[in-house]
């Protein structure tokens, strides 16, 4: 994802930057994977404004993202398109599985249109593949992972673009984030 920086033509433009959207290959989402998104305008269940200055903006639709991909072990998928998602800063990839199903995933850096991705314990270590934490060797950077069989994929203790597996032990894995590395500490041990 390349960044385009603006020239400081006005005080507000100084330091401004936007994505150049060069990696996007399709402008319309897959209709079967889109749901309506209702804005709340900063109001709670009673209708009272609890967060001021919320609301308005362009209309959005929610794209259904498959974060787990655990029911597609051993089924290869081809990356059909890299798309824009208005609900997040990351790009999303539309996968066409060999069994005919279509799903969205968060597109990691290095994933491009036409790539083949897979999930399962025997998957190769490359961008877009999904495999158990015990099969990831120490040191490579990866996207968010889960710390347990029932946990979701947002398991890093600190924010950042990626995590690394910094130690291999029989029972636990030690997860480190770039922000934590610069601070001189690592996050909690991740369960197998």
UniProtKB/TrEMBL annotation:
One of its GO terms (cellular component) is large ribosomal subunit. InterPro entries: NA-bd_OB-fold, Ribosomal_uL2, Ribosomal_uL2_bac/org-type, Ribosomal_uL2_RNA-bd_dom. Residues 42-119 form the Large ribosomal subunit protein uL2 RNA-binding domain. Keywords: Ribonucleoprotein, Ribosomal protein. GO terms for biological process: cytoplasmic translation. Residues 27-58, 146-192 are annotated as: Disordered. Residues 148-168, 179-192 have a biased composition (Low complexity). Residues 37-58 have a biased composition (Basic residues). Pfam families: Ribosomal_L2_N. GO terms for molecular function: RNA binding; structural constituent of ribosome; transferase activity. Belongs to the universal ribosomal protein uL2 family. This is 50S ribosomal protein L2. It comes from Mycobacterium kansasii.
């Amino acid at each position: 994802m390349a960044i385009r920086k603006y020239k400081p033509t006005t005080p507000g433009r100084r330091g401004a930057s936007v994505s150049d959207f060069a990696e996007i290959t399709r402008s319309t989402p897959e209709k079967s994977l889109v749901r309506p998104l209702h804005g709340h305008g900063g109001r709670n269940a009673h209708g009272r404004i609890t967060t001021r200055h919320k609301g308005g903006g362009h209309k959005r639709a929610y794209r259904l993202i498959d974060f787990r991909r655990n029911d597609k072990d051993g089924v290869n998928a081809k990356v059909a398109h890299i798309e824009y998602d208005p609900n997040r800063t990351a790009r999303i990839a539309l996968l066409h599985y060999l069994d005919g199903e279509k799903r969205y995933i968060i597109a990691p850096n290095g994933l491009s249109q036409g790539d083949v991705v897979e999930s399962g314990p025997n998957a190769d270590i490359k961008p877009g593949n999904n495999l158990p934490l015990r099969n990831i060797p120490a040191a490579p950077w990866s996207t968010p992972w889960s710390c347990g069989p029932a946990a979701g994929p947002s398991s890093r203790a600190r924010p950042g673009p990626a995590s690394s597996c910094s130690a291999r032990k029989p029972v636990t894995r030690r997860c480190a984030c770039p922000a934590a590395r610069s601070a001189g500490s690592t996050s909690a041990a991740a369960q197998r």
